[in-house]
Prior knowledge:
The protein is an alpha/beta fold. It has 15 helices and 14 strands. The strands form 3 sheets. It has a 6-stranded parallel β-sheet with strand order 3-2-1-4-5-6, with helices on both faces. It has a 6-stranded parallel β-sheet with strand order 11-10-9-12-13-14, with helices on one face. A two-stranded parallel sheet has the order 7-8. α5 links the parallel β5 and β6. The protein binds nicotinamide-adenine-dinucleotide.
Amino acid sequence: MKIAVIGSGYVGLVSGTCFSEMGNKVTCIDIDKDKIEKLNKGIVPIYEPGLANLVLTNVQNKNLSFSTNIEDVIENVEVIFIAVGTPMGEDGSADLQYVLAVAKSIGQKMNHRIVIVNKSTVPIGTADKVRETVQKELDNRNLNTEFDVVSNPEFLKEGAAIEDFMKPDRVIIGSDSDFAIDLMKKLYHPFCMSHDRLIIMDIRSAEMTKYASNAMLATKISFMNEIANICERVGADVNNVRIGIGSDKRIGFSFIYPGAGYGGSCFPKDVKALKKIAEENNYDAKLITSVENVNDAQKFVIAEKIVNRFGQDLSGYTFGVWGLSFKPGTDDMREAPSIYVIKELIKRGAKILAYDPKAMDEARKFYLKGIDNVKYFNSKYEVVNESDALILLTEWKEFRSPDFGEIKSKLKNPIIFDGRNQYNSFNLDVIGFEYYQIGKS
Ligand SMILES: NC(=O)c1ccc[n+]([C@@H]2O[C@H](COP(=O)([O-])OP(=O)(O)OC[C@H]3O[C@@H](n4cnc5c(N)ncnc54)[C@H](O)[C@@H]3O)[C@@H](O)[C@H]2O)c1
C-alpha cells in the first residue's frame, strides 16, 4: 500500500516506519525542514529504542522516504495519516490548527479517492471538522472527489513505541465507510497475525476512546499518589499498600506506582482537554479535575521534602539529580516532573548537578534553557560528587541498583530523595543513608 504520514514526530515517525517494515511504501512528511534534512541523512532526531535501525533498514530497501511537501507524493497515495501535534491551547482545549492545516492542504492537492486517517489525539467531532475542511477545498476547486475520514487514535508508549506499534493491545478504527474499514483491515493485518486486534466503531466513540484511556491511566496514578500522601500522614507505608491492593485482580499492579506525578506529551494535555470537552458540553467533570489537581501538587512533593530537610533558603546547597526525562526510555521532557522540581529548588537558591542518559540535550536547549545554576554531567556518579543530597526523578534502569557505597563516599551528606520509590527495598537507613521517599514518613 502507498501511504503518506504527515507529521514525523514520535507518533508519525514510529507509525510510518512500522508500516514500511511490513512492506508498504511510506513517505513521512514534516514542515520542519531541519528534521527532514536529518532524516534524509540517516539521522533520527528523537530517541526511541530500536527506531534508528528500523528507519535505516527501510530507507535502504526504499520502503521509507521523507519529504517536506505533501505535493511530492499525494498523486500516488491511498492513505494519508495525520499525526501532527495537538498541543494544549491557551484555554486548555486541544489546539487543532495543525490538524486542520493538514486537512486544508490535502483538500487543495488531492485528485483521487484517499482515506484520510486521523492518528493525532483530537476532541470528539474533529473528524467532522477535517471532513468539512477538505470538502471546502474540493468545492473551491470544483472537484467532486470522494474521500473518507477515519479516526485511528494511537496508544503507543514512548520508550516502548516500536514494540507497542508492532504488537498493539488493540487497534481502534472509527469509521462509517465500508471502503475505509476494508482498507484499514488490510493495512493492520500484518500487526494482527496471532489474533484480531481491530475494534471497529463509530468515529466519535473512537475519538473519545483515546481520551478515556489516557484519563483512566492518569486517574490510577493520581489515585495512588493521593493514597501515598495519606499513608505518609498516618504512618502507613505505601509500598506495602501498593502490593496489598495490586494483588487484587480487579485492581492489578500496573499504573499504581506512587511517584513525582505524571508528565509527558500526552497525559497532562489530554486530561485538561477532556475536562474542557466536558465543560463545553455543560458537564462539570469533577473526577478528572481532581486527577489534574492531585498531579499538579504531586510534582512538588519531593521539593517540599527537600525544603523540610534543608530549609526554605537553599542557597549554598547543591543537589545531584538523576533523571530528567518524563519517564525512562525516552529523551522527551515535555511536562516532566524534573522541570518543576529543579525550578523550585533553583528559585530557592540551590545549585543542581544533573545527569540523564538521553534527555540532557533537550534540557539544555529547551526545558531548562538559560538556567545557569544547572550543570550537566556525563555520568551518574559525577553529579553526586560534592552534592548535599541525591534526588532521583526518572526510573532509568541504570539507576535501579547503583553502588550505594560510591554514592555515600561522594555525597557531602548521605541523603537520598527518591521521587520514584526505587530504593525502598534496599534498607538504605541500615547502610547509613537518610532516605526520603513518596508515601512514607
Ligand atoms: N507522543 C506520544 O507518546 C503519543 C502517543 C499517542 C498519541 N499521541 C498524539 O499524537 C499526536 C502527535 O504527537 P507526537 O508526540 O508525535 O508530536 P510531535 O510534536 O513529536 O510531532 C508532531 C510533528 O508534526 C509536525 N507538523 C506540525 N504541523 C505540520 C504540518 N502542517 N505538516 C507537516 N508536519 C507538521 C511537527 O513539525 C512535528 O514534527 C498528538 O496528537 C499526540 O497527542 C502522542
